[in-house]
């Protein structure tokens, strides 16, 4: 070799210089595996449902491409060479892995497997959402579900950032060109008061009695927010609340209510669950309502999401009906 020259090992090619690795196909491995396991071209052809001559040609082409002999044809039954035994072992691994991959891809494509991230208003867990989740998990147990409690304004942002696939928003989102939305229910709201609050001994609370009461509410901004929705309805009835604390989730609001910091408003479904230190009272008249929607991106293509939305549609409440309206009215929830 002359000084300054370099040499590299040539790539093994044939058939017009195409690398052998680019020509080797899964069908070659399936054909070889059948012949190697049957040790007969005739039986292998029957197993593969093809004629014997094309099968023999494919195996010969495979040997030519590899540059090694795989099968001793002079033997009866056929006998594998050492190279053939090694290829059979690896071919079985490759084909098994490929079949597993194909099965996984098909399950994901049909929504039978994969992942689904769900954002939700905390109060949704007191209503029909657990029923939907149970129904979905029964039908699609291989889909991994993740959950994030979010405010309505956070649900919109999380959808756009594709951090969640679907959301349950209270209240519904404003019209958006990228988001689809479906109303699920609109239920009445009740007032939660500390058990030592003067209201706690009443059977219900007149709307006008709420004026200038200390309130614990979610942030009013950014919109949409359930607080803004509630305050608009109250202000339309000449009732103004003094917001003493803004909180980020339902449990904190109820905890501070139990501590006597102020009163708060919750959907009636929440009011049917006993909470230490808190009384839930109906409003008179029941002017406050709490709508909930399911929201998702218009361009979403996930089959798992499509299946989930079908479950939502099949399990959504037609309307909200308190289980025990008398218990709620007497403040014994």
TrEMBL record:
Ranges of Polar residues composition bias in the record: 1-16
GO cellular component: protein-DNA complex
Domain of life from the UniProt record: Bacteria
Pfam families per record: HTH_1, LysR_substrate
Keywords: DNA-binding, Transcription, Transcription regulation
Entry's Gene Ontology molecular function annotations: DNA binding; DNA-binding transcription factor activity
HTH lysR-type domain residues: 24-81
Keyword Ligase tagged: no
Annotated region described as Disordered, given as residue ranges: 1-20
InterPro entries: LysR_HTH_N, LysR_subst-bd, WH-like_DNA-bd_sf, WH_DNA-bd_sf
Similarity field: Belongs to the LysR transcriptional regulatory family.
Stored PANTHER family: LYSR FAMILY TRANSCRIPTIONAL REGULATOR, TRANSCRIPTIONAL DUAL REGULATOR HCAR-RELATED
Name of the protein: DNA-binding transcriptional regulator, LysR family
């Amino acid at each position: 070799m002359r000084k300054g020259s370099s040499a590299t090992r040539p790539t093994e090619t044939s058939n017009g210089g195409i690398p052998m690795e680019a020509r080797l196909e899964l069908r070659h491995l399936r054909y070889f595996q059948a012949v190697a396991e049957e040790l007969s071209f005739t039986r292998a052809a029957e197993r593969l449902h093809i004629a014997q001559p094309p099968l023999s040609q494919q195996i010969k082409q495979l040997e030519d491409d590899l540059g090694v002999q795989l099968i001793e044809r002079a033997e009866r039954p056929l006998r594998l060479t050492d190279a053939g035994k090694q290829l059979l072992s690896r071919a079985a691994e490759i084909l098994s892995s490929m079949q597993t991959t194909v099965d996984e891809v098909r399950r994901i494509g049909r929504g039978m497997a994969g992942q689904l991230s769900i954002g939700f208003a905390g109060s949704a867990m007191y209503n029909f959402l657990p029923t939907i989740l149970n129904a979905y998990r029964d039908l699609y147990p291989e889909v991994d579900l993740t959950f994030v409690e979010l405010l309505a304004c956070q649900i919109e942002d999380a959808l756009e950032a594709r951090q969640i696939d679907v959301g349950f928003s209270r209240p519904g989102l404003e019209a958006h060109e990228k988001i689809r939305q479906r109303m699920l229910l609109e239920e009445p709201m009740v007032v939660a008061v500390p058990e030592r609050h003067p209201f706690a001994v009443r059977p219900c609370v007149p709307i006008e009695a709420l004026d200038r009461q200390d309130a614990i509410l979610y942030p009013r901004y950014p919109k949409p927010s359930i607080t803004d929705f509630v305050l608009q309805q109250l202000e339309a009835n000449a009732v103004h609340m003094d917001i003493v604390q803004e909180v980020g989730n339902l449990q904190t609001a109820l905890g501070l209510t139990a501590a006597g910091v102020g009163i708060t408003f919750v959907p009636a479904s929440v009011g049917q669950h006993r909470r230490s230190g808190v009384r839930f009272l109906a409003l008179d008249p029941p002017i406050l309502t709490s709508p909930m929607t399911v929201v998702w991106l218009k361009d979403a293509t996930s089959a798992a999401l499509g299946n989930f939305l079908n479950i939502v549609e099949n399990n959504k409440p037609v309307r909200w009906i308190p289980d025990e309206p008398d218990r709620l009215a007497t403040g014994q929830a």
